[in-house]
């Protein structure tokens, strides 16, 4: 063996490349063998493969749809209906769990004994009960105990609560309503611009500007002005009891409410502990310094403690968001029409395209998790401590 070849074999970079190449080739061969055997078995049994089934008529209804859908639409449409329903409960669950989790986490550190103990009881109870049992509790023990539509609980002239869901008025937009949306977008843009200006002025002069109240004023006033200037191009369609159920308006089905409550409350108990540990990790001297400068305890927590705690909170918080998204697949247990129930359930049973449907379902959850991680990593870099 020549000296050049011997040196190449003892080169750690070359050897690392060779071993990784062998591992990749082995992995691809393993996957190819499994897929090829599966397709061969399906072909021998006369089971069709491919994505052609997506254009076939579905023939079944779905209780909750965010886009137009009926029995005549294709299986491809059911995929998007289930995807949007999964995204809906995941996004709402993340928002509610974050709000509740931060409140409970901060309450856990309260100097008030009763508040602190109540927060501790909340955390220990809800995080130690299996999520599926909590979903069953909210659905069967709470929501299914509500009265029938004819005996609905009225929460106003156009809000009704019964065993079939929560019904409230639906906004109907008329010609000219687009100006209201334009006013809202302008208000959002002005609020962002003002927040950037206020932060810059605070860094230069130390003076604080009321960002929240100015932003709320813009978000309320500009769309309201556009609403009246365009002749009030908006009216509401109230739900009306016809027969055995309500017609018209907007309805929130009990399956969505039960799943959302269980996911939010369960995940919030873990987020609360993450928030508590993150706040405890901030040096006590930071709070003492802020209080000595005349800041109130509330401002100290909001302006000094929490911004520093976020650097510790964000990474484990991301994991809880991912868990919530994946736990939403338990919706099948109570019949909420998410991706698993509609596509990996009914569609799979009717078509028998197990490999394609399961692969598409797995790809969706992978994409949702990666997208959530991407957003959280971007925010984590924004709040991270920049060294000079």
UniProtKB/TrEMBL annotation:
Membrane-protein topology: Multi-pass membrane protein
Keyword flag Transport: yes
PROSITE patterns according to UniProt: ABC_TM1
Pfam families referenced in this protein's UniProt entry, alphabetically: BPD_transp_1 (PF00528)
Subcellular location: Cell inner membrane; Cell membrane
Keyword Cell cycle: no
GO MF entry, a single one: transmembrane transporter activity
Keywords: Amino-acid transport, Cell membrane, Membrane, Transmembrane, Transmembrane helix, Transport
Residue ranges constituting the ABC transmembrane type-1 domain according to the UniProt record: 83-376
Transmembrane annotation, as ranges: 17-35, 79-107, 119-141, 176-197, 209-229, 249-272, 357-379
Alphabetical GO biological process terms: amino acid transport
Entry-linked InterPro entries: AA_ABC_transptr_permease_3TM, ArtM/GltK/GlnP/TcyL/YhdX-like, MetI-like, MetI-like_sf
GO cellular component terms, A-Z: ATP-binding cassette (ABC) transporter complex
Family the UniProt entry places it in: Belongs to the binding-protein-dependent transport system permease family. HisMQ subfamily.
Listed name of the protein: Amino acid ABC transporter permease
Lineage per the UniProt record: Bacteria, Pseudomonadati, Pseudomonadota, Gammaproteobacteria, Vibrionales
